[in-house]
Amino acid sequence: MKTPFRKLALASMLAFTIPAQSVLACTAITLNANDGSIIQARTQEWGAFDLRSEIIKVPQNVVMKGNTPDGANGLTWESKYGAVGINAVGLPVFIDGMNQEGLAVSVLYMPGFAQFQDYDSQQSDITLAAYDLPAWLLTTKANVEEIKTELPNVRVSDVKVPSFGNIAPPIHFLVSDSKGGSIVIEYTNGELAIYDNEVGVMTNSPSYPWHLTNLRNYVGLQPESVEAKQVGNITLSPIGVGSGMLGLPGDFTPPSRFVRAVAMRNTVVELEDSERAINESFRILDNFNIPLGATEAPDQLPTDGTQGSTQWTTAMNAHSLEYYYHTMNNRTLRKIDLNEIDFTKGEITFYPLDKNKAQTIEMVEVD
């Protein structure tokens, strides 16, 4: 890559701003299939502007540097594994991605709760900015056990960026691997926390343990319809199917989406193979798509046509090393096969998500 990683990241981040009130409503899930397929999938909502996301490819043997609050050189590393994913606004960073070992990382917002480690200039050589962390994980780690062992040895700091209101992006991370491991990585109160993701879901604020506690309010949910009940002299029976899920929250807040995603992900039918698992991951995430304007007040609508909607959705198969996605402009499913990529040469490169920002339509001939 001709432009240094650090300089390009900072220059690009200065090119946009985020309003105080933005829709940051990402939802992520994991799914497994009987053929060994392990899927991590997510939606990407962003209410402030068009993220102008691209496909990013990082090959092996690329020297990369982390950012620090005082601008000193942070942690320097060389990419061991090649990775493919999706970036934003021209940055050489990953919002979502998978490496050639099947490690998958998804970045979601956690405003009001994410607080990274205090910066120590004497430890700048082991320091990363939060937005550097996905690239470091994807290019140096093969599975979640390596992350559990090695992540405590680096420092992840609140690197302030003027275009983010002079704050650090408040983010947390869902990670899964080809062995079936799945973790949530969060930094709160300046401390690292790594949680085993036992329910296979992550959304936004508050922190992951809070969402698990909140699930206790919905222990009565079940996929089976409830039985008719006698009330006084009349018998009340459910109106239609789905009564077992009566009370499932349907709004777009992070707590409601977490409950809804847990209910759908953990009642899914047995999935025979990767095709079923990929299709079902997108079907589940269709329940979290935000229509244009559904979550924005009239005076907060952006002018570029995004209006808080789901800008893209991805699904990564750690077993087959296949990366799938569709966008708000074109819901035709597209696939990147990491097995077909030569990661041993080249530099960091970018490719458009949509060749044309228009829905592909297949004509059906009817005689």
UniProtKB/TrEMBL annotation:
PROSITE patterns: PROKAR_LIPOPROTEIN. Residues 26-343 form the Choloylglycine hydrolase/NAAA C-terminal domain. CDD domains: Ntn_PVA. Keywords: Hydrolase, Signal. One of its GO terms (molecular function) is hydrolase activity. Residues 1-25 form the signal peptide. It holds the Pfam family CBAH. Belongs to the peptidase C59 family. This is Choloylglycine hydrolase family protein.
